[in-house]
Amino acid sequence: MKIAVLGTGMVGDAIGSRLIELGHEVRMGSRTADNEKAAAFVAKHNGKASAATFADAAAFGEIIFNCTAGGASVEALKLAGESNIDGKIIVDIANPLDFSKGAPPSLLPSLSNTHSLGEEIQKTFPSAKVVKTLNTMWCGLMVNPAMINSGDHTNFICGNDAEAKQNVKALLNEFGWKNENLLDLGDITSARGTEAVLPIWLRIWTATQNGAFNFKVVS
Amino acid sequence: MKIAVLGTGMVGDAIGSRLIELGHEVRMGSRTADNEKAAAFVAKHNGKASAATFADAAAFGEIIFNCTAGGASVEALKLAGESNIDGKIIVDIANPLDFSKGAPPSLLPSLSNTHSLGEEIQKTFPSAKVVKTLNTMWCGLMVNPAMINSGDHTNFICGNDAEAKQNVKALLNEFGWKNENLLDLGDITSARGTEAVLPIWLRIWTATQNGAFNFKVVS
After folding, report:
1. Helical packing angle, B197-208 and A197-208, nearest 10°
2. pLDDT digit string (tens) for A95-120?
3. Which of A18, A100, B156, B158 is 20 to 30 A from B118, alpha carbon to alpha carbon?
């Protein structure tokens, strides 16, 4: 499958690299076509990846992964352009972290509590199918859940379009996620819940000095 | 031990009943000494519990459980009176839920994200030792963790006073919590993280229609 990965940070690199490993064609998008991190990503993948502007990457992708910084995601997707996004699935992995108030970051007030980044993206691009998932853990685990607890921990998923969620679940299965560990929380308003995991995630990370952990919902 | 349980709701009833079962003396506090729910609590415990105003209950308790509604907790503790709280441990189980914006509730903006109820209580009563714990789960599990997954799931704890946290851990052990399932997140500012669990908790509860679940941190 042709997949756009928007964002050149650790998350974009982890997602893009895993997708290539699984045989997908990846185009990494950034603000400028000559982004250095994107170039390094392309170089290490030996002809199996390409780099482009947000717009060219989005146009290329049959599905779009949003791996940009949460506070900049809506702007990045606007640069990608509505016509390049129209009707496509956006897998939204970003978190609306606010680094302006010191460490650990809090959540951007305008995109949290009674709202969320996932909802804002869906509202900005009504014809897109936004699926929020994977944003509650370190990127190493997103693409390789078996790294801890034999892969037995929880990944949340939410979005308004049932078929889009099914398609994303199939990709998550390719990453190694078992269906019994995928917890569908309903429509995209549930992103208010999954994005609010970040404050506790950051506190656990600080307390344990280990980012390779996740939450398992047990009952 | 003589223990004050402030609040007459489901949480206060669950905590108070379990403490009595474990042999402690419990005085349930509420706004008025003749609160009907408190009277029912006293009646069902057959002389092993008493009911009183917030102030009389706090004066009675060597340790104080805050089981009031989060939005009213600071006021309830003010009614309890600084002199009755001075130097004591406050086990804060409350969550600053905001029911004014529809269901599911969000968090009160003034007590979340860059602040928390736990911190606000600590700031209002600097000589008290506020320990935030148990607030991330259904009250049935707070006092009987073995009800699910053989008790193997996570309870967070935070607070500024190490000795107070040790004393609270000993009470949690009485409830059935094993030390390996108690995750100390550090000082009371970590209540920003644990109180922010509520949004995802409420979404999972809605999606699964089952409140008897908890999070287990796996790594």
Report:
1. 120
2. 999 999 999 999 999 999 999 999 99
3. A100
Higher pLDDT among residues B118 and B33, named by residue: B118
In this complex, is the C-beta atom of A204 within 8 Å of any C-beta atom belonging to chain B?
Answer: yes
Domain range list for chain A: 2-208
ipTM: 0.97
CB B199 to CB A193 under 8 A? yes
- From the CA of A29, how many Å to the nearest CA of chain B? 31
| Nearest-CA distance A35 → chain B (Å) | 34
Please report which residue ranges of A32-114 form alpha helices under DSSP H.
36-44, 54-60, 73-80, 82-85
Q: Which chain B residues touch A213 with a CB distance below 8 Å?
A: 217-219
- Angstrom CA distances, A203 to A50, A208, B139, stand at 36, 9, 23
A33 close to B (CB below 8 A): no
A190/B207 Cβ within 8 A: yes
Residue A39 exposure: Cα atoms within 13 Å on the Cβ side = 5
List pLDDT tens digits, range A144-171: 999 999 999 999 999 999 999 999 999 9
| pTM, 2 dp | 0.97
CB contact (8 A) between residue B192 and residue A106: yes
Domain at B2-208: CATH architecture: 3-Layer(aba) Sandwich (3.40)
Q: What is the 3-state secondary structure (H, E, C) of A132-182?
A: EECCCCCHHHHCCHHHCHHHCCCEEEEECCHHHHHHHHHHHHHHCCCHHHE
Q: In this prediction, what percent of chain B has a pLDDT beyond 70?
A: 100
Give the pLDDT band of residue A46 (cuts 50, 70, 90).
confident
Contacts of B113 in chain A (CB under 8 A): 106-107, 109, 112-113, 199
Q: Any chain B CB within 8 A of the CB of A44?
A: no
